[in-house]
Amino acid sequence: MKSQRIVIKNKIGLHARPAALFVRKAGEFNSEIIIKKGKQEANAKSIISIMALGATKGEEIIIATKGSDEDEALKAMVELLESFEKEN
Q: What is the CATH number of the domain that holds 58?
């Protein structure tokens, strides 16, 4: 299992459009991808699960991947979050 901490810097957090893009990207990988915020966990392949986290700007999350392509999955998910930050 691989994981990385990241602070959400985009002004709307992981809501609506960013969550949909996150789910779409996560679906490209075979690995299990989990987002952790405090004691909450969300399946990164479920938009409902991500939206329920309520992750907002300034909050720290952990992205954890486990599976055959976990390294690639983690890198891609972190890069996607960082690209959201550049938009705002």
A: 3.30.1340.10
